[in-house]
Design a protein that fits this description.
184 residues, mainly alpha, 7 helices, flat, disordered N terminus
């Protein structure tokens, strides 16, 4: 195993274990807020396209108002960030929303396979957003991990997983445990 990666994996596993031991976070409001932010980003995009189709400057004003609202909401979730974390977070939510919408359209057309693929990608990006903003993963850790390192994580997880999986799979499992949208 690559020695330099060992401390990062151990740190990640410690954070996962804390959450598994009942130190769950009540993020139901933040989860709702993250979905609202996704929709605000989508509205920004629609105002951009509407302005370009109509050349009516009122759509630029609306876009700016929505952008300010989105920035304010994002600040409530992203407390501490360095470098590109702010923009990465925004783009993770935007891409997650788009994959979700494409998946919903595929589902409507009866293409469940495509829908499942899009929904999986959406959830992976959403999980990465939370992993990044809960401090479970650092931007430098998002790089592709070697299969041996992933196997190490799998060995130390409970319940034990078989085979190897991506950082997205691990984050998805952690996010599922950490965020319970049904808690009030």
């Amino acid at each position: 195993m690559n020695k330099p990666m060992q401390p990062n994996i151990n740190e990640f596993m410690d954070k996962v274990k804390k959450m598994e031991k009942g130190e769950k976070l009540d993020l139901s409001s933040d989860e709702d807020l993250s979905i609202a932010i996704m929709n605000l980003i989508s509205m920004e995009e629609h105002f951009f396209f509407t302005y370009n189709k109509t050349k009516d400057v009122k759509y630029l004003d609306l876009l700016n108002e929505i952008r300010e609202m989105r920035k304010s909401a994002l600040k409530r979730i992203i407390k501490d960030y360095e470098g590109e974390v702010w923009c990465i977070s925004k783009h993770l939510l935007a891409a997650s929303m788009r994959f979700m919408e494409v998946g919903t359209k595929a589902l409507t057309k009866g293409n469940k396979g495509d829908a499942e693929d899009m929904f999986q990608k959406s959830y992976q990006l959403y999980s990465l957003f939370w992993g990044l903003n809960l401090g479970l993963v650092q931007t430098k850790d998002v790089k592709h991990m070697e299969s041996k390192e992933i196997a190490f994580i799998n060995e130390n997880r409970k319940p034990k997983q078989t085979g190897t999986s991506s950082i997205f799979a691990k984050l998805g499992a952690v996010v599922q445990k950490a965020i319970d949208c049904c808690r009030e």
